[in-house]
Amino acid sequence: FNASARRMAMPEIPEDLFLAAVREAVLADANWLPPIEGGSLYIRPFMFASEAFLGVRPAKQYKFMVIISAAGNYFRKGVNPVKIWVSQDYVRAAPGGTGAAKTGGNYAASLVPQAEATAKGCDQVVFLDAVEHRWVEELGGMNLFFVRSDGSVITPPLTGTILPGITRDSLIAMLREEGLDVREEPYAIDQWREEAENGTLLETMACGTAAVVTPVGTVASPAGEFHIGAGGIGQMTAKMRERLVGVQHGRIADTHGWVMRV
After folding, report:
1. How far apart are CA 252 and CA 189, in angstroms?
2. Angle formed by the axes of helices 235-249 and 166-177, to 10°?
3. Domain 82-249: top CATH class
4. What is the CATH architecture of 2-71?
5. pLDDT by residue (tens digit) across 9-55?
6. Among 69, 86, 98, 119, whose CB has the most other CB atoms within 10 angstroms?
């Protein structure tokens, strides 16, 4: 939150105030937790300028708030492999921009390409880099991991154009605890297709706060489609999702100090 605030020329929020606000909001809305499988309370801390001023400069007054929303499964079809569209005409962020900041403009930039993906019969859109239009970056709101047959896992590096997701950090830690060689390095769209077709790539998983861990089953573009794995939920994807959700729900010990009980 504070890293994004700094990039947007906004004030930082003291950690104790931030956590207290989240706690109070959760306590106030706890009864809205949906009693369904996959149900949760989605917590969104946010801040906006509230100064009565028209001009181009950082504001001198802001409001910090926390909103809570009852939520179910991120995708309507539940935890099943999703189909994603490779955006050809749009990019999410460019080097030196605000791609690594959790700011509304990044979501706005994804709306038209997401609508295009939906029109193509896909669940999500994946963006390539803005310079070469070759390197896989992230989905509209999720990071990606590529699980390979040699025991390695690749996830795109934090170069300032993708969000340093909290779930991404959690997955890196858990995958390494499984003994896998997790590498943060560029992964090309052509490599994705080639490794999916020759069997080097076993699974692709997308992750985010709302989607948690979701398998990617099909990748589509004007050049055609390719499929990943056997078409179901991969073993590592299922294991990572079960473990992360288990930690979140208190069924599995939180050995990292990720959970704050309310």
Report:
1. 36
2. 110
3. alpha beta
4. 2-Layer Sandwich (3.30)
5. 999 999 999 999 999 999 999 999 888 877 889 999 999 999 999 99
6. 86
Contact 214, 84 (CB under 8 A): no
DSSP letter, residue 32: G
Report d(CA 232, CA 124) in Å as an integer.
Answer: 17
Domain-wise residue ranges, the chain = 2-71, 82-249
Whole-model pTM? 0.93
Tell me, yes or no, if the two domains 2-71 and 82-249 fold the same way: no
Give the tens place of pLDDT for each residue, 112-146.
999 999 999 999 999 999 999 999 999 988 999 99
The residues near 251 (Cβ < 8 Å, ≥ 6 apart) are none
Of residues 60, 77, 102, 239, which has the active-site annotation? 102
Which amino acid is it at 80? N
Is residue 102 part of the annotated active site? The answer reads yes
Pair of tokens at residue 2? 């504070």
